[in-house]
Write a structure and sequence with these properties.
Blueprint lengths: L2 E6 L4 H12 L3 E8 L10 E5 L18 E4 L10 H22 L4 E5 L13 H15 L4 E6 L2 E3 L9 H8 L1 H6 L5 E3 H14 L5 E3 H10 L1
Parallel strand pairs: 1-2, 1-4, 2-3, 4-5, 5-6, 6-9, 7-8
Helix pairs in contact: 1-6, 2-3, 6-7
Length: about 220
């Protein structure tokens, strides 16, 4: 197979692992990474595209013909930006890219890194839940060949990093306890990335994939 992949968030914790899985796969011939800034990444399959505005893809639309899978791993932590910016990054950005790619490759598969608690009624008091539910609804309505939304709980970073806020610092310390609370509560970055990649490549029986589903999938590998 010679699959063509588009990925966002490839410099992030989960997206970076998904990118490496793509580059290692013999089924994938081309990986287009949409990034804000250039990186040192080099690989025969890898094409890096610097995007100035994630709400305007006209200069790059020719790249989106024949896309097989989109791995959308771009996002922002709650509290990191004002509410309006948070919604733009988590709803407007992915929707703009999805519409553009759908116009060129309607038979592609779109994989969205969402989050636990995403509310498809869009009535939650929490912005995170409303916005994640909103983008899931929008992407479902586009009718891609396949759409998958991944809703992880706490994502444990297997490689040491500077934690983005106090919540993540505490969660990392408490991970052994969180893990004991069951398969609905947490997942490692490696497990999450492997699930996103595997489902994107092979499909799954559900469109909305919860943390427990992802743990079960990893246990079966």
């Amino acid at each position: 197979m010679n699959k063509k992949i588009v990925i966002t968030g490839s410099t992030g914790m989960v997206g970076g692992i998904v990118l490496e899985l793509c580059l290692q796969s013999s089924e994938i011939s081309e990986v287009i990474a949409l990034v804000r800034r250039s990186t040192p990444k080099a690989h025969p399959k890898y094409k890096e595209v610097i995007v100035e505005d994630f709400l305007h893809y006209d200069p790059y639309i020719h790249l989106f013909k024949g896309v097989d899978i989109v791995f959308y791993c771009l996002g922002v932590y709650t509290g990191a930006v004002p509410a309006e910016e948070f919604r733009k990054i988590n709803v407007d950005y992915p929707l703009t890219l999805a519409k553009t790619i759908h116009s060129q490759s309607p038979n592609s598969t779109f994989c969205l890194l969402s989050g636990q608690g995403a509310d498809n009624t869009e009535k939650s008091k929490m912005q995170f839940a409303r916005d994640k539910g909103a983008i899931e609804n929008e992407l479902i309505a586009l009718n891609f060949k396949s759409f998958y939304s991944f809703r992880p709980g706490y994502i444990y970073p297997t490689t040491k990093r500077k934690e983005p806020n106090l919540f993540y610092k505490i969660s990392r310390l408490l991970y052994p306890v969180i893990k004991l609370l069951g398969s609905s509560m947490s997942i490692t970055d490696q497990q999450l990335a492997a699930t996103i990649f595997t489902v994107g490549m092979n499909g799954y029986s559900k469109s909305i994939i919860e943390n427990k589903d992802m743990i079960d999938l990893n246990n079966k590998r």
